[in-house]
């Protein structure tokens, strides 16, 4: 996040500046440079404005009270929660679904209880990929990995496969962004006696307004954030108003991270994206470095949605491997095992293949 305070540092060496009593200038005690007070005021005026804006931004909250709605009594009757006695994961499904295996730890014992206490989602993205698509996508995911153990694919089978709706908070915002960049142009001059490098430094300021729609942050602690970020993007144009009918035959993970707690991740994604947009406008330089920035939320709205994910579990050498597939697009993410022997021999094999080629090239060069 942007700094809400300003540190006065020497423009020449970066050391702290201080006002020495009895003098009319601000002095750098490290390099000895003295600055008129009016010069320092002008140098740091923009930074002070950005700091004030940053402090204002930290006080601006997302409007999370409109995300989700209450279940009707008829809808709540058809929903049940199951708690895994092994790992404690809490899953939600309709009255027609009975889970026989926990998708997180593989434990087969599930204890049904009455479901309550969860907001009704605003939207849902229905599943487009079926079980056969998930299995085929996983097998295709194995291809092209040279270090994958040979018997992994030969003896591997999917032990568990489960379609699940994962809770996501979707953040909409309109922002005003300001940023200050240090840009450099480097010129190299070759003379008979020396090489002269000239570096010109520029202070570039950019500002603008931007709109962001449906910035996704998953609302489940047990769903790995890295996996959820990797399985994106979802096509949010296919969001439809939520209906419990979409849960038929599927599990739905109960959110256990509130919209308020997810707001920091949304703010970070907005800030990073906004700064990158401003930085992209500082072109025709050899180097560009961010000096300071302030991103202010003018409008912040949140909605609650369920998105489709296939969770597949396989086992190799008694170790489970979990993969996730975007139930809308078919994108697969996961961690694969590797063959240590192949990892050792692969560089040597490449060397053996390249040696005759290298020998031929050297021979042609010499003769």
Overview of the structural elements:
The protein has 367 residues and is α+β, with helices and mostly antiparallel strands. Helices cover 28% and strands 36% of the residues. It is extended. The N and C termini lie far apart (63 Å).
User: Which H/E pattern describes the elements?
Assistant: EEEHHEEEEHHEEHEEHEEEH
Q: Could you describe the largest sheet, including whether it forms a barrel?
A: 11 strands, mixed
Query: Count of DSSP E strands?
Result: 14
Choose one word for the global shape. extended
Estimate percent helicity: 25-40%
Category from helices, strands and their pairing: alpha+beta
Distance between the first and last residues' Cα: 63 Å
- Per DSSP, what share of the residues sits in E-state strands of 2 or more residues? 35-45%
Mean pLDDT: 76
Q: Give me the Rg, rounded.
A: 29 Å
Q: Please count the helical segments.
A: 7
Stretches where pLDDT is under 50 for at least 5 consecutive residues are: 95-100, 108-115
């Amino acid at each position: 996040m942007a700094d809400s305070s300003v540190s006065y540092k020497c423009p020449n060496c970066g050391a702290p500046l201080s006002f020495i009593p009895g003098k009319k200038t601000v002095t750098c005690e490290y390099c000895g440079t003295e600055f008129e007070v009016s010069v320092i005021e002008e140098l740091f005026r923009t930074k002070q404005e950005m700091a004030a804006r940053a402090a204002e931004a930290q006080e601006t909250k997302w409007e999370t009270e409109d995300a989700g709605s209450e279940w009707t009594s008829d809808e709540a009757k058809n929903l049940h929660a199951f708690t895994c006695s092994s790992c404690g994961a809490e899953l939600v499904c309709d009255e027609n679904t009975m889970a026989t295996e926990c998708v997180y730890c593989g434990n087969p014992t599930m204890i049904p209880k009455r479901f309550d206490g969860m907001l009704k989602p605003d939207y849902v993205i229905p599943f487009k990929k079926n079980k056969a698509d998930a299995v085929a996508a996983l097998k295709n995911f194995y291809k092209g990995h040279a270090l994958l153990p040979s018997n992994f694919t030969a003896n591997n089978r999917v032990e568990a496969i489960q379609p699940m709706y994962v809770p996501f908070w979707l953040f909409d915002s309109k922002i005003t962004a300001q940023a200050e960049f240090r840009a450099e142009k480097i010129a190299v001059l070759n003379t008979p006696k020396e090489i002269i490098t000239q570096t010109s430094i520029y202070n570039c300021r950019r500002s603008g307004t931007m709109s962001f729609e449906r910035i996704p942050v998953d609302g489940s602690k047990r769903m790995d954030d890295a996996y959820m970020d990797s399985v994106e993007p979802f096509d949010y144009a296919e969001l439809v108003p939520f209906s419990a009918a979409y849960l038929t035959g599927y599990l739905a993970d109960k959110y256990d991270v509130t919209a308020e707690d997810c707001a920091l991740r949304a703010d970070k994604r907005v800030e990073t994206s906004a700064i990158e947009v401003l930085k992209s406008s500082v072109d025709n330089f050899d180097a560009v470095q961010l000096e300071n920035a302030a991103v202010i939320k003018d409008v912040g709205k949140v909605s609650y949605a369920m998105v489709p994910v296939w969770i597949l579990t396989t086992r190799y050498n008694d170790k489970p491997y979990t993969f996730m597939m975007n139930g809308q697009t078919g994108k697969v993410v996961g961690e694969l095992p590797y063959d240590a022997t192949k990892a050792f021999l692969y560089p040597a094999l490449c060397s053996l293949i390249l040696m005759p080629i290298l020998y031929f090239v050297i021979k042609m060069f010499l003769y």
